[in-house]
Amino acid sequence: MQNLCFPEPDLTLTSHGHDTKPFAWAGIELTIPAAWETGHLGDGYALLEHRYRPVLEMKTATIRGRFNFQRHFKALTRSGRTRSAPPLRLTPLPPGWPAFSARMDVQPFAWQGDHVGGRGLLLYCRDCRKATLIQFYDHGDHRLAAIPDVLASFKDHTSGSGPTVAVYDIQATLPDRFALTRFQFDAGRFELVFTRSREGVTLWRWSPADVILDRCGNTLSHVARNNGLLPPAVIDQNGRPVEGGLEWQWPARGYRHRLRGFFAHRAPPPGHALRIWHRSDSNRILAVRGEAIDTFDTFEGICTSYGAI
């Protein structure tokens, strides 16, 4: 149904300026119009909205075993669709849509209901073995001129030039070895956990910062303690001042201090660290905790990359 309260939205992407922003989730990277917002995230799933209406839906999964285009197409498109949903029609690649690598299998499709339609692609990369379905919604009162540029920005494995995660109002870049293993997005509080073997990185974001700080005596150390970010070993320490915040470091459990002789030539054992800081410009509190990180430079790089979109 057309919403007459809104003028026709301009969703055209431009290559430069503040009209676009990064989106990165579940190993997929896109450049999207700045007006599009994250509506919902799940495991291998994302829904983007504009003015509270869906504009892009994405589902992605790594395929184990032989890829069967028809079978996986049905599985991905069936997920989340009701019995009354309009059927999907396979179509040729629409004029103006970008071509993809020869290593990518591509199947365009379209669908049309009584009040809303859409079109999209199922893509399968033979290198990373990831199948991704992207569909764009057309509500009848506009045409998504952004589709070609959004698709041209598509990356389904690490490009090395974009953030690891860029959703809602945050973005961060982590080394390739880390995988997102747990996440939670609540009103005012985000938490994302990345792991690799014994290593771990957790990102937090709280908002509005002024309200949270007022409840915690305007002290970031109280925010860290009240949210269980510090272990007993350092919970009574005040933390080392860093720009806009505080930092703690403590040794990883199970590692002894370096001894003379055999251990003297080895690098220091991995340790833990927590940094929490206040972004007054965006009224956010951000925090990063690293566990058994190989070097402090890695932790520093993650903290430096973590910020607001």
Counted by DSSP, the helix tally is 5
Segments where pLDDT lies below 50 for 5+ residues?
1-17, 255-266
Major sheet size, sense and barrel closure: 7 strands, antiparallel
Query: Looking across the biggest beta sheet, what order are the strands in?
Result: 3-4-5-9-8-7-6
Question: What is the N-to-C order of secondary-structure elements (H for helix, E for strand)?
Answer: EEEEEHEEEEHEEEEEHHEEEEHE
Mean pLDDT: 84
**Spatial extent as radius of gyration:** 23 Å
Shape: elongated
State which percent range the strand residues make up: 35-45%
> Strand pairing plus helix content: what structural class?
mainly beta
Helix content: 10-25%
First and last CA, distance: 32 Å
Task: Report the strand count.
Answer: 19
Describe the 3D structure.
The chain contains five helices and 19 strands. It has helices spanning 69-78, 147-152, 209-215, 220-226, 296-305; strands at 20-25, 28-33, 37-42, 45-50, 53-62, 89-90, 104-112, 117-125, 130-138, 165-167, 170-172, 179-186, 189-196, 199-206, 240-242, 245-251, 271-279, 284-293, 307-308. Strands 3-4-5-9-8-7-6 form a seven-stranded antiparallel sheet, with helices on one face. A hairpin with a 4-residue loop joins strand 7 and strand 8. The longest helix is centred in the N-terminal third of the chain and has 10 residues, at 69-78. The radius of gyration is 23 Å and the shape is elongated. The two termini are 32 Å apart. The model is unreliable at 1-17 and 255-266 (pLDDT under 50).
